[in-house]
Design a protein that fits this description.
Blueprint (H helix, E strand, L loop, with lengths): L1 E5 L5 H10 L5 E5 L11 H17 L4 E4 L2 H14 L4 E3 L4 H6 L6 E6 L1 H5 L1 H10 L5 E5 L1 H8 L6 H11 L7 E6 L8 H7 L4 E3 L2 H14 L11 E5 L2 E2 L4 H7 L2
Parallel strand pairs: 1-2, 1-3, 2-9, 3-4, 5-6, 5-7, 7-8
Antiparallel strand pairs: 9-10
Length: 249
């Protein structure tokens, strides 16, 4: 069984990709809905929340854990990998994807939570590609709250995006990096209302990395009828309709 963690429902966008890439695996999805959003939490709080979830998933028998939350990754990944002996896969903003496909040499707009954009891990990623001169950062914590409230296509969301994107001359950009898994829910809205921006996220790369990691450790399985279960802040979900509604989007 593979454990998947997110602060809320954002990681379901990653789970959906992993279900496609690894259709025979069992998944246990942990949403920390009691503490979402993490955008306004301290690093100490985030570390406590994430480790609690990792311990829960490990105790439930997960052979690997995916941190499908950029904020959680930036705060905890090194600590968790040092402390726990199971493979922990970490998502990261798809800045490299944007850079590799940026044949027009336009600027890249990296959108994420404030924690992610200020993290050393994100800065190290930018510096490793030597593209700090062409990447602009835009925190969009409001999108997390919109997603958690299932406001995907409301006028309020569009108003929020127009206000935030107005801080930049979008003609100078081609790729907008969705550096938070919650943001993927708004990909369609961005494409329809800001047509010169091409959204990219790290979901596909994370799923591919998980598959390669498990294959390398000989941990892949082929379950005839794989199961998917959901947990909210340490408690198994009885009514799973909301989670499947997100997965079906």
């Amino acid at each position: 069984m593979i454990g998947v963690f997110d602060s809320g429902i954002g990681g379901l966008t990653v789970l959906k990709e992993m279900m496609y890439t690894l259709p025979h695996e069992n998944f246990l999805y942990y949403a920390d809905t009691e503490n979402v959003p993490y955008s306004y939490k301290t690093t100490e709080q985030i570390k406590e929340y994430v480790e609690k979830a990792v311990v829960f998933l490990r105790n439930e028998g997960c052979k690997s854990i995916v941190l499908a939350c950029n904020t959680a990754t930036n705060v905890t990944i090194e600590y968790l990998r040092e402390k726990y002996d199971l493979p922990i896969i970490a998502i990261q903003p798809a800045v490299k994807v944007a850079f590799d496909n940026n044949t027009e040499n336009k600027r890249i707009l990296a959108c994420a939570t404030p924690v992610t954009l200020k993290a050393d891990r994100f800065e190290n990623l930018i510096n490793s590609l030597d593209i700090d001169h062409m990447v602009d950062r835009l925190p969009l914590p409001g999108l997390v709250e919109f997603a958690e409230n299932e406001q995907f296509e409301s006028p309020e969301v569009l108003k929020y995006l127009k206000k935030e994107f107005s801080k930049f001359n979008l003609e100078n950009y081609k790729y907008v990096v969705l550096g938070c898994t919650h943001f993927t829910y708004f990909e369609k809205m961005i494409q329809e209302n800001f047509p010169n921006l091409q959204p990219v996220d790290g979901n596909e790369g994370t799923a591919r990395h998980l598959k390669n990691t498990l294959a390398g450790l000989n941990l892949l399985i082929s379950t005839v009828k794989p199961t998917i279960r959901f947990v909210e802040s340490g408690r198994y979900v009885k009514d799973e309709a909301r989670f499947w509604r997100y997965l079906d989007r």
